[in-house]
Amino acid sequence: MCIRDSLRGVTDVYETPAEGIAAFQKIYGSAVRPGPAPATTAERQAAEALKPLPAAITAATLRKACKDRPQAAPPAESATIEDHEALLNTFLGSHRDWEKYRTWNDNCSYANHESLTLRAELNHEAEPHQIAWRITAYASPVGDLVWHASATTTAPVALVRDLLENAADHLGPASADPATLDERVSQVTAALTEAGWHERTDTRWTTWTAPDRSHGLRLDTYAAAHPEQALRSWTAWHHATADQPAWAIGFTADVPLDVLKDLISSMSLSATRRLAESRPAASAVAPTAPRAATPPLAKHATSSI
């Protein structure tokens, strides 16, 4: 593990190694744990998936359980900085592969992944609609920046939590992703095209908008064509436009496709549900029975007097 010189510090000097080891054990003994390192998120998910199903569970039981399971509600459309502070504390408590540390800046909280190639920053002083989250990924602990993402204070907590978890599952350069920009765009926006989102190209930007205009996605083609400049290439937003959104989440060009596609899939699902809920339910009108044919009027003979 590499530690920057700026983070090193000498607390004491010992004459023999035995004295140093004894002092270390006394100070940090509660944090030292024997045995292998704890499993990562991906390893825990793989172990859970490989567990054999109980004999009593049949295919019919699984289908019924999936059918009866309630559908997950779409993420809340707006959040506050207090919601994101609670998210950070909950996330660090349930993910032992992340660790929080302090710097000279008390306005921000920082969390490092155990690989030292992924960092999350939360700005506690961010105003609504300002950038609150910054997530950066590096090629190695001392390597170059690979990609970074940002989210505003009002971004849904569920989307930010998924972003943190997915980022940890896709560390390092995304070598398996398509190399050409057209292929990347096609894979990213496939779900939007299927959901009927409207596409519009305007010089430098290509925009996809939900049918009810509640959500949108914008691609900066210049930034995507020049990933070395680390400019924001993808911007996902809710309400209004990409320049004046209720909330926004942005990515640079080299973000792993799975991370970006997961966010877009959640947005598409949320927009589809909003559209379905906004449509008035069709009123059930009982069909009217056919009217019986009216019999012809009987002709009465009149007698002349």
Please give the share of residues in helix.
Answer: 25-40%
Q: In angstroms, what separates the terminal alpha carbons?
A: 128 Å
Question: How much of the sequence is in beta strands?
Answer: 15-25%
Q: Which class do the helix and strand fractions yield?
A: alpha+beta
Q: What is the 3D form?
A: globular
Counting H and I runs of at least 4 residues, what is the number of helices?
A: 9
Rg for CA atoms = 29 Å
Order of helices and strands: HHHHEEEEEHHHEEEHEEH
Which sequence of strands runs across the widest sheet?
Answer: 1-2-3-4-5-10-9-8-7-6
- Total count of strands: 10
Rounded mean pLDDT score: 79
Largest sheet descriptor: 10 strands, antiparallel
Low-confidence spans: 70-75, 281-289, 296-305
Task: Characterise the protein shown here.
The chain starts with 16 loop residues before the first helix and ends in a 27-residue tail after the last helix. The chain has a ten-stranded antiparallel beta sheet. It is globular and about 70 Å long. It is of the alpha+beta class and 305 residues long. The protein has helices spanning 17-28, 41-49, 59-68, 81-94, 157-169, 181-188, 190-194, 221-225, 257-278; strands at residues 98-101, 108-113, 118-123, 131-138, 145-152, 198-202, 205-209, 215-220, 232-238, 247-252. α5 packs antiparallel against α9.
